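User: Hi! I'm working on a homework problem where we have to compare a predicted structure to a textbook description. Could you give me the structure for the chain below?
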Amino acid sequence: MTANIVILGGRGDGMVVLQVARDWIAAGADEAVLGFLNDDFAEGAQLDGLPVLGALSDWRRLHEGASFISALHKVKQMEARAGKIKSLGIPDSRFATVIHPTACVADDVQLGVGTFLAAHSVVQPGARIGRHVSIRAGANIGHDAVIEDFAYVGPNATLSGRAILQTGAHLGPNAAVLDQRRVGRYAVVGLCSAVTRDIPDREIWMGVPARRISSVPSL
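Assistant: Happy to help. Predicted structure tokens:
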């Protein structure tokens, strides 16, 4: 029986998720993408040839065979966006997990619901990935690493072995976190940065080695 995926989001992150899903389906997954739920576009609008089916809160109108995947990751805004996803009240059983056919995921990896892995990403043995995580193309997740809910790993970024990316943290493109280091809740690591020390919650670090430059305001 074919399952039907609805993307929570729109342009930007939503287009990335859509392409991952299309490649997954082309490789033989028994799925179909129905369209989007989005608060910024009117119902019936077209995004890359697929319709906006309503606002985010309209998920209850869709039939029970529809499953959802969130595409709402945005740097420095993840606390609010995570709160929005939680507030919708969608049961975990209704969320999809989408893995690009070229991704390499070890057999014992734990993957949470609502997560997607883009092309050529690698998740090594023992890694634990939470709910609603975005892992972009070419990212490398080391052995026994932990990525908590709503975190983001940018293109070609590396989370080394036993490193931890906490809830809502953002690892920018080509950034790297040294083994056993922790990036705190809702913290941001800038592109091409090298994390050699633990980063506290809500701080923004950049550079090689990465250093604190600013902070992410709390709600």
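For your comparison, note the following. Residues 3-94 form a domain with the Rossmann fold fold (CATH 3.40.50.20). Residues 13-26 form the longest helix (14 residues). Good luck with the assignment!
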